[in-house]
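Dear colleague,

Thank you for sharing your sequence with our group. We've completed the structure prediction you requested, and as agreed, I am returning the results in plain text so they can be pasted directly into your records. Please verify that the sequence below matches your submission; if there's any discrepancy, let me know and we will rerun it promptly.
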Amino acid sequence: MAVQFESINLSIEGYKKICMGAFLALGMTQQCATEVTDNLLFADMRGTNSHGLARLKQYTTQVGKGFIIADAEPEIVSERGGALVIDGHNGLGAHTSTFAMKKTIEKAKQGGMAFCTVRNSSHYGVAAYYSTMALKEGQIGLAFTNTLPFVAHYGSMKACTGTNPLTITMPCERNYDFCLDMATSVVARGNIVNCAREGKEIPIGWACDKDGYPTTDPNAALTGYCLPLGADRNYKGSGICLAIDILCGVLSGGCSGLQVRPMPTVAPEDLHKGPGICHAFGAIDINYFMDVDEFKKKMDDLIDELKAQPLAPGFEKIMMPGEPEYLQYDKHKALGSVEIALENFHEVCEICEKLCPEVNPKDYVVA
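Please find the predicted structure tokens below.
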């Protein structure tokens, strides 16, 4: 269920100038600032507003306090066969993850498939940004991440794992590419943060307060916990959530579960240790299995078949994973602007005034 916010439209050009101005002022390299900006814009273009400009305050605050290292560079610490392990050295998650996915794609070209784990990173933005990187190489892309503890494991009433999203993307020819991108909790934490900032209630069923009672108060939810996917079968979502935590945190030799560190809980002298967020990436080169054009044709045939089925009551169209986001992206690209929540925009104005006063976000508001 979507929650509606009062919003403004910001030009794509202005969006980039705002992010780049703030990130460069904090000491990020040009490449790092560009990759983080591209990730945020990709999210807002797709309508995934919980992972777009809404994250600017989080990133600038964490870098400003040294929790994330502005100029840190990822390092390959192990490389054998189709396997990679990368240390992000507490740098920007989008920069580290773009590097990791590129390396994973390169390895898949050499042997048909590859898998990469990343430790000592930070929030990596919208997951589909990485899985879609594989498409232009004729590959299937996968990406996973653990996150700050916000989800209660099945049977528990304490947040002990993250919302731990997953994405898998596969190419098509005529149809939009298949792109599943989802949290393994009922909702991403960013959606609840957005509701708290905007003073909006959250739908019942998203989260519980610290005493374990379902709540519509986003602030109470942020001190409580979110539920895993699955409704009355949420052991299923809980199991997927935990599996992703293991693939990312345990397999990388990094942090998992309650070891992942929210900044407010870290003592000032330990801020340099960073959040400890971990990721995992996979790539499958389709040409090692079959001709990629034949694969795309089979994908189109399958999707066409699914879309031709009778509509269930209340539905106007059968849509595939990723299709609503592709439609949003195309709309925003045609308009040359993206929609930003008004309270988020006010927040962005304050950030620019502090970090890059030469950039005035109000100059980039469009009708």
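Summary note from our side: The chain has three domains: 1-64+336-367, 72-186+228-307, 197-226.

Kind regards,
the structure core
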